[in-house]
């Protein structure tokens, strides 16, 4: 019998500091330290938590959002940079794997990014949300297939998606096919109301069942004072309440501990990694339950770039690439005489 492996995890539901990015980072570091005191080995924070999720874009028309959008640019995270270095140091100090959601600034564009730090502080993955949703398209650019990766970490194989990426079955299948063991899900929280919370729960429980993995999901939280600061209109403020479903789900689709749906806190649970094989013995969606000869997934996992160059050094004086020339000279070019 294999040795039983238990991983202690935390899903973090806290409020950002809507005034300063430094304040939000301080809250992240404090939550990491608190989780470490409780023996946590793996922690997930909400979607674009640093410096904050752009709630303003949900309740305010674009023509009135310029100042807030510019402030988000000013406070956004450069990767690598001071924010990632601070979190990396905390991960290293506490020997903790951390998944952090940030607004990433890359020159003139912002992206919804997820960063996975290993327990030694290394960044294992930085990925960008494939398709921002509705109002988010005014804020963020699009990600690419290069981020659809599952990475080996100190606690196992980790995959991550943000919010409604979980409604993209092919994106989820890309991670399933790489045999993720713990899936980090991130949603904004404090948005849309109970309907959103219910949808999140259905979505993450279904992914756990289908992937045969654990899901650790973190949603954010806004205080009443913060909600009032975003909009003076009570009708609009209703859209900034509820929608919280911080939860930890087993490969059998069950809540490991009761979810956290309001207020701030750390949801902590022990994961029995043996449950993964127990679930997959019955239904392995990328193994014995798959039919790749009928249905398969094609992924372009290249980094999307606005410019691609062809190195002139690769070409011979005849205009043939060095690889082509090598094929012809060796007699391996099937199209040659």
From TrEMBL:
PROSITE patterns named in the record: CN_HYDROLASE (PS50263), NITRIL_CHT_2 (PS00921), PIPLC_X_DOMAIN (PS50007)
Keyword entries, A-Z: Plasmid
UniProt region (Disordered), positions on chain: 313-337
CDD domains: nitrilases_CHs
Classification via SUPFAM superfamilies: Carbon-nitrogen hydrolase
Signal peptide boundaries: none
Domain of life: Bacteria
Start and end residues of each CN hydrolase domain: 7-273
Family: Belongs to the carbon-nitrogen hydrolase superfamily. Nitrilase family.
PANTHER family: CN HYDROLASE DOMAIN-CONTAINING PROTEIN, NITRILASE
Full protein name: Aliphatic nitrilase
Species of provenance: Methylocystis iwaonis
Phylogenetic classification of the source organism: Bacteria, Pseudomonadati, Pseudomonadota, Alphaproteobacteria, Hyphomicrobiales
């Amino acid at each position: 019998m294999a040795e039983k492996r238990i991983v202690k995890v935390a899903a973090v539901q806290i409020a950002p500091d809507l005034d300063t990015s430094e304040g939000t980072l301080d809250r992240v570091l404090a939550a990491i330290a608190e989780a470490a005191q409780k023996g946590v080995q793996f922690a997930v924070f909400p979607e674009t938590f640093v410096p904050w999720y752009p709630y303003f874009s949900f309740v305010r028309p674009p023509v009135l959002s310029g100042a807030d959008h510019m402030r988000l640019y000013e406070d956004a995270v450069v990767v690598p940079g001071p924010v990632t270095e601070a979190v990396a140091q905390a991960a290293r100090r506490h020997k903790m794997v951390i998944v952090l959601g940030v607004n990433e600034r890359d020159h003139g564009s912002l992206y919804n990014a997820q960063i996975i730090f290993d327990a030694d502080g290394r960044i294992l993955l930085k990925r960008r949300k494939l398709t921002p949703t509705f109002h988010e398209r005014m804020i963020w650019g699009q990600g690419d297939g290069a981020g659809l990766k599952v990475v080996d970490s100190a606690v196992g194989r980790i995959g991550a998606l943000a919010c409604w990426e979980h409604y993209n079955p092919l994106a989820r299948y890309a991670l399933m096919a790489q045999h993720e063991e713990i899936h980090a899900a991130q949603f904004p929280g404090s948005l849309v109301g109970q309907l959103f919370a219910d949808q999140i729960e259905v979505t993450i429980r279904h992914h756990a069942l289908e992937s045969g993995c654990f899901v650790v999901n973190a949603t954010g939280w806004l205080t009443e004072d913060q909600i009032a600061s975003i909009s003076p209109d009570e009708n609009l403020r209703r859209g900034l309440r509820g929608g919280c479903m911080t939860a930890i789900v087993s490969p059998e689709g069950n809540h490991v501990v009761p979810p956290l749906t309001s207020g701030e806190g750390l949801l902590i649970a022990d994961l029995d990694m043996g449950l993964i094989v127990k679930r997959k013995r019955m239904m392995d969606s990328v193994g014995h339950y798959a039919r790749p000869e009928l249905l398969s997934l094609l992924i372009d996992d290249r980094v999307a770039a606005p410019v691609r160059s062809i190195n002139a050094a690769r070409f011979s004086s005849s205009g043939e690439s060095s690889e082509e020339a090598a094929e012809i000279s060796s007699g391996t070019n099937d199209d040659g005489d």
